[in-house]
Amino acid sequence: MTPYKKEPDSKKLSGKDSLYPDKVCFRDFPKEKWSLETKNGLKLFAQYLNHDSDKTAILLHGSVSDSDSMGGFAKMFYDFGYNVLLPDARAHGRSAGKYIGYGWVEKEDIRNWINQVIAKNGENSKTIVMG
Fold it and tell me: pTM of the prediction?
């Protein structure tokens, strides 16, 4: 695992970004705040765009980033009729933690996010993960 201290700067938008209009739309879109606690007591946070659908896309950001960086993709999936869940990984964005696990420890976190989606939308809901 790698220590992580740098705060990502995904809030700054550039007109040069091809997803700029979608990221602006995402930034201003109303979002629910979700959270979960890991086995070792870390509090993780996510943003949820509710489309009242049985389909949900969980969008995972890259290393040294946060959920806001996936705003363009969130808008795209929302426009396709999906609910969208955007978690901040451990030690990223609003989530607690000092170390990045590069997917090893985060795989359990993703399973827990999926379980929250199922709890909200039912056993027959459809969930995809991208990232």
Answer: 0.85
